[in-house]
């Protein structure tokens, strides 16, 4: 493989490197001896460009995507098998790959992109394109002299992996040892360059990092020699100098022997009493929860201090809690809960005293839902069975001392539609219709055209009687829907008025002594009407299933 040619845009110096990884020290024009059709992929890792050939070979151009203060970046030129120069164009803001445009010479490319600070002399690049990559390599090796009979062999040996790597306690510097004169590059776990420097003549280096590394970050350190050869990475873990957050959600049971809460997973939680006496420790689990046995139990209202220490010895700020005082028990009941709401009859929410237990009971006193009020005073619990039909509920809060708030009555929303009406009968002449439905619901009767011809309210006994106007005709189809007070409507009941003959006349008629009640028998379901001598209606009733009426 021929050499890689690099023309530094800032120093105006063109050099060559053997095929392999190189590291750019400034924005440059990079000419690689590879035809575009031999490239499998080009990818960005941090500021580096990684070229993977179809043969499986890879070469990394370090700092290819870095730009100088003037915003000038690097350019890439590929050389075809026939010597054609292909300028690789790309979007520096969002790199997705290259598109290629042939150029007659590198002079053309340089003239198009300009340089940082001044125009690059034509000879600095044009000479390389005229010589060809192999000739350019020789020219760079020989310094342009014609007295040498042949160039020396290129340096293709990568530096050894850096050793004795150490990040300072404040996370701002990284030291180590490596090949003198090589460039040190330090990258974080995402491949971002976070520091660079040079190995001194004594083989040591001390590099400033651009951001503190103080939370056990894993860093990669590589060395790049003057020929662009890159060492295998050395790895180092930054110190953990970040303290955990203070423990939260602290609670002590009534017996004063168990303290629970949350802290950084894996941290050791300590509880101390008066004078700093250690009362108990525990390790927070993967979910952050911990439970500590206190010895001796704390039952006299003592002030306790809780802290968490991570594996590196960093200690959190102190959190405080007061132990229960069994000699002065808590007899104050919580206030009633507020802001109650019930969604879909299942999810019950509201506000209350933090830490209190929420209990929801139905009208029979059965507990149908419980929960705990969070530290923010909010609670959310699930009711089972769902309450969707205007049920009366009892809601109360119970604190850790078993004090219960005054029960609060809450009415569940009525989102359940009534059942369809039943037992429909149309009286003689089609002027009245009876049936059964949900007490309190309004029944609406419509004819085949959708016109309302009668309405009525279902009585407390579940029956209704509706006058129809105009009268329903034999064989006519009616539609009945009942709607409860909450606006929930039943499915429609379709009813065909039967083809009937006139009913038999009432019989067994009798009027009571005070003249206010008439009894007798008539065909079941028929409407019995009583008119005076002037034809005025003075009473009516529906004959029962046994034919009796009153």
Automatic annotation (TrEMBL):
Residues 158-240, 243-325, 333-414, 418-497, 502-550 form the Bacterial Ig domain. Residues 141-152 have a biased composition (Low complexity). Residues 141-164 are annotated as: Disordered. InterPro entries: BapA-like_prefix-like, Big_6, Ig-like_fold. Residues 1-123 form the Biofilm-associated protein BapA-like prefix-like domain. This is Surface adhesion protein. The lineage of its organism: Bacteria, Pseudomonadati, Pseudomonadota, Gammaproteobacteria, Pseudomonadales.
């Amino acid at each position: 493989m021929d050499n890689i040619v690099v023309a530094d845009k800032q120093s105006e110096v063109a050099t060559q490197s053997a095929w392999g990884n190189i590291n750019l020290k400034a924005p440059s024009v990079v000419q690689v001896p590879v035809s575009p059709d031999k490239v499998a992929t080009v990818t960005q890792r941090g500021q580096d460009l990684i070229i993977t050939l179809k043969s499986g070979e890879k070469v990394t151009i370090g700092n290819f995507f870095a730009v100088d203060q003037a915003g000038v970046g690097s350019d890439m030129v590929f050389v075809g098998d026939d010597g054609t120069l292909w300028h690789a164009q790309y979007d520096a803001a969002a790199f997705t790959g290259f598109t290629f445009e042939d150029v007659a010479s590198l002079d053309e490319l340089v003239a198009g992109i300009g340089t940082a600070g001044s125009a690059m002399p034509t000879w600095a690049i044009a000479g390389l394109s005229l010589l060809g990559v192999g000739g350019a390599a020789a020219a760079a090796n020989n310094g342009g002299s014609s007295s040498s009979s042949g160039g020396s062999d290129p340096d293709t040996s990568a530096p050894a992996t850096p050793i004795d790597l150490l990040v300072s306690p404040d996370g701002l510097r990284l030291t180590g040892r490596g090949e003198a004169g090589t460039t040190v590059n330090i990258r974080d776990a995402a491949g971002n360059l976070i520091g660079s420097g040079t190995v001194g003549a004594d083989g040591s280096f001390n590099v400033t990092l651009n951001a503190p590394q103080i939370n056990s970050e894993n860093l990669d350190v590589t060395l790049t020699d003057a020929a662009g050869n890159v060492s295998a990475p050395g790895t180092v873990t930054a110190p953990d100098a970040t303290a955990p957050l203070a423990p939260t959600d602290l609670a002590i049971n009534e017996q004063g022997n168990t303290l629970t809460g949350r802290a950084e997973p894996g941290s050791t939680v300590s509880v101390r009493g008066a004078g700093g006496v250690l009362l108990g420790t525990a390790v927070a689990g993967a979910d952050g929860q911990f439970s500590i046995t206190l010895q001796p139990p704390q039952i006299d209202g003592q002030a306790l201090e809780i802290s968490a220490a991570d594996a590196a010895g960093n200690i959190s700020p102190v959190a405080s809690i007061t132990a229960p005082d069994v000699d002065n028990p808590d007899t104050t009941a919580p206030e009633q809960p507020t802001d109650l709401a019930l969604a879909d009859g299942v999810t019950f929410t509201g506000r209350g005293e933090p830490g209190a237990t929420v209990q929801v009971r139905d009208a029979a006193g059965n507990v149908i839902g419980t929960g705990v009020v969070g530290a923010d005073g909010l609670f959310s619990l699930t009711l089972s069975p769902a309450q969707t039909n205007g049920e009366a509920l009892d809601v109360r809060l119970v604190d850790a001392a078993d004090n219960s708030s005054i029960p609060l009555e809450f009415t569940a929303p009525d989102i359940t539609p009534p059942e369809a009406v039943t037992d429909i009968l149309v009286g003689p002449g089609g002027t009245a219709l009876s049936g059964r439905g949900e007490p309190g619901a309004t029944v609406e009767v419509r004819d085949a055209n959708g016109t309302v011809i009668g309405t009525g309210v279902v009585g407390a006994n579940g029956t209704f009687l509706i006058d129809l106007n105009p009268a329903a005709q034999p064989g006519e189809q009616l539609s009945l829907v009942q709607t409860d007070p909450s606006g929930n409507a039943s499915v429609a009941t379709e009813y065909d008025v039967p083809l009937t003959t006139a009913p038999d006349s009432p019989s067994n008629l009798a009027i009571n002594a005070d003249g206010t009640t008439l009894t007798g028998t008539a065909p079941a379901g028929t409407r019995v009407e009583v008119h005076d001598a002037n034809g005025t209606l003075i009473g009516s009733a529906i004959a029962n299933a046994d034919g009796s009426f009153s």
